[in-house]
Write a structure and sequence with these properties.
The chain has a domain at 28-85. Strand 1 (6-10) and strand 2 form a beta hairpin. It is 46% helix and 11% strand. The two termini are 20 Å apart. It has a two-stranded antiparallel sheet. By secondary structure, the chain is mainly alpha-helical.
Amino acid sequence: MGPAGAHVSGDGFEGRVGAYPIRAVDSTGAGDAFAGGFLAATLAPRLVPATLRRSLGDLVSRVVFAGACGALACLGISGEAGPSSRAQRL
């Protein structure tokens, strides 16, 4: 994962899932946020909108969700000043 996105192989898909176009302030914690987002989406699929899951499949939609989490972590310094509300995170 990074500016080029993430490579995904599985669930009938092989290819790159693009990264979110953001103005990164600091990438500290972005990988941890990506991993946490992927795990959260795996354990609680309801976090990922059903329309996204239906159109992209379970694996790719989890990677898209995880990418959003990683991108949000880059919006603040040291991953601490990211979104403060659930609405901002979603």
